[in-house]
């Protein structure tokens, strides 16, 4: 089979043995595996040919792009890994139509830079954007810090090109904003983590680059007061809040301890710290000549300072200050590292239930350890919290116990055990015990229908049925 | 089976014979059929029981709500029709979370009125909203005039309750803005036109009611000039344009002829007439105390009048004038009626290709009839045109010929033969000859997997394979 793979992609692009090292473990280095080979096709046709060969040989294929996923979605023991890294062309940027046509291996930050030249943005943004690639962003429906305004990755995609498990190329590269011609396959393949096919290309939406940003760190009385601040800012700016990120006292303290040169956002320490950023989508200026959005942010904060809901606020006066605020937020993964192993939960609840669910989780975890170490950071505007916790004795059993506690609490509020990171293999147990059984059965039926040989990224997303192997 | 149905929903809610009259034809009265019975369940559990019974008897079931579809999606010869009309409860409106939880039989305009009391809107709006119901809106992924700002129906839905072809109830009634726990089934069932299951309930997104509207009729030099106006308005208002509706000269002329008391939008007659509406999502006021949005609209139009791109403009000074503008636009279906039969196409192209595709269609149709009668109205901001045309000799063959001409032109620009109306049975031939074959095969596999007996609204959306029955 190796020879046949070489015939398709060329000798240099079939990696084996030590050359596979960087493909043989996940981003967080929690698991490792040995693929049969790693192939690096240069075109959709080559991907198709590789998948057809694998299908004929009933051999598993595992697609990989930036490999920055947090749920071990690319484990590939004995499988042919298909790395999309050479499919890194931005095929087209059409500023007037506000679209970019890209291959799956384009690095997210490269796309962001390329469209910046046209005064446009591709809004998706998160810590790993210098490594993460569009194919993986789509396959995991990546979230990040701008979802509040622009939506998840699926909301940023108009069309797809996918190689199906039988090797056929499905071209649904639509540029259309309306298309009701049958089942919406685009949304099915987005977020399927490569288990239904390999995304090789996409038509992505671009947006006008905000004319100005107003960015601030704000200390607020409570989480409900923070949500009230968000609502007031949305009303005052016409829904232009781009980010609304919650960092509790523990996050700030840990950041100060772990990151060299880190500075506190305020002189005093507060419980509820919010990074807020508003993007001005209009050219409107205030009478004093500043962007209207800055004046609006200041005015809203000033009124809430007066009534006591806002306790303190610092507005970034320049790009350096803005960058420092963002660097603190984006250090979330980094500041967890020294405390590993932790249980890392990625939970979603209705936005107005965040305080209640965090309180409940805290109370329940203290029943097994009265002094847990916790790092929380939340996309508060989306109802999405990253909850990392370390208790005494972090054995596998203890981790399971803590995970179940968190899930119990989240489900009581109608929440999800996976907000933006996906399932991979890491959250298969949660999927098995928490996902609606009828929905799970429907997913199994769809997987079986599109991939009857179960060769396409097998063992991810959908847990094996109890009773089956 | 009738007795068993009565046992589930009660005698009064199993209709037969003449009582089925209003369920036995489509909205446009182009087709009629005789169901086995029409049942009117009052709850999701009753829907489930009816589907289980039908499944055991291998009898087709056809869901129907407002029955205002334009593609004959509810034909039900010999089938059990399940009317959702009694499931008309708004279960919950939660203003602070901006959601409504509704049953499938809620009439769209009733929901719009109910949330208005909370200064919120459910943005979906189109001519038939006084009859159309949420279940049908979701099943057809209805579009309408506000898609430009708020998206299609699928963008307005957070969660669903669905009765599957085996009668099981799938509860994915999420209120979450982020949920990456497996395949996105919500988007698969939305737009499936009841062929994969029956939507019985939904969690819908609500939006703040605009503080003010600025509405105008604008005569523009050309379609590219109209798109430039749209871009300038979006930049000036931060993307607050709610509607941007194109009515060419022929539409205005026909409207004047057909509708009693109709008035022309301008003293002169122009080729390119646009209804534009901007919603103020902020409280901003201009120095003279008027809503800033009105001043912005006036200013943008004034600048374009000066440079000659805009030829004329009338801004609504009050709600009566605004209503008159909308009434003209919403008379589109009415003014086609006297000219039936026509070929009614619902096409989408990339927004910047609208002029080219309309020109091409016009040229091609004139080759078979040098003087066709055409009524066009377009959601220009979405790239979606409703193109109704009557040529000499409107035989079935001629209609097919004209349809194929339109499809040929649309596909040359990467467009779709169904933008917002769906497929039903009316567009099965287009689906068979125009849809990507690999995508069609994937849809067939999914349908077969979820509905192996093919009892759920059979014969819609997915054309039979050539060679099969």
UniProtKB/TrEMBL annotation, chains A, B:
<dbReference type="GO" id="GO:0003824">
    <property type="term" value="F:catalytic activity"/>
</dbReference>
<dbReference type="Pfam" id="PF01565">
    <property type="entry name" value="FAD_binding_4"/>
</dbReference>
<dbReference type="InterPro" id="IPR016167">
    <property type="entry name" value="FAD-bd_PCMH_sub1"/>
</dbReference>
<dbReference type="GO" id="GO:0022904">
    <property type="term" value="P:respiratory electron transport chain"/>
</dbReference>
<keyword id="KW-0274">FAD</keyword>
<dbReference type="InterPro" id="IPR016169">
    <property type="entry name" value="FAD-bd_PCMH_sub2"/>
</dbReference>
<dbReference type="InterPro" id="IPR016164">
    <property type="entry name" value="FAD-linked_Oxase-like_C"/>
</dbReference>
<feature type="domain" description="FAD-binding PCMH-type">
    <location>
        <begin position="31"/>
        <end position="209"/>
    </location>
</feature>
<keyword id="KW-0285">Flavoprotein</keyword>
<protein>
    <submittedName>
        <fullName>FAD/FMN-containing dehydrogenase</fullName>
    </submittedName>
</protein>
<comment type="similarity">
    <text>Belongs to the FAD-binding oxidoreductase/transferase type 4 family.</text>
</comment>
<dbReference type="Pfam" id="PF02913">
    <property type="entry name" value="FAD-oxidase_C"/>
</dbReference>
<dbReference type="InterPro" id="IPR051264">
    <property type="entry name" value="FAD-oxidored/transferase_4"/>
</dbReference>
<dbReference type="InterPro" id="IPR016166">
    <property type="entry name" value="FAD-bd_PCMH"/>
</dbReference>
<dbReference type="InterPro" id="IPR036318">
    <property type="entry name" value="FAD-bd_PCMH-like_sf"/>
</dbReference>
<dbReference type="InterPro" id="IPR016171">
    <property type="entry name" value="Vanillyl_alc_oxidase_C-sub2"/>
</dbReference>
<dbReference type="GO" id="GO:0071949">
    <property type="term" value="F:FAD binding"/>
</dbReference>
<dbReference type="InterPro" id="IPR006094">
    <property type="entry name" value="Oxid_FAD_bind_N"/>
</dbReference>
<dbReference type="InterPro" id="IPR004113">
    <property type="entry name" value="FAD-bd_oxidored_4_C"/>
</dbReference>
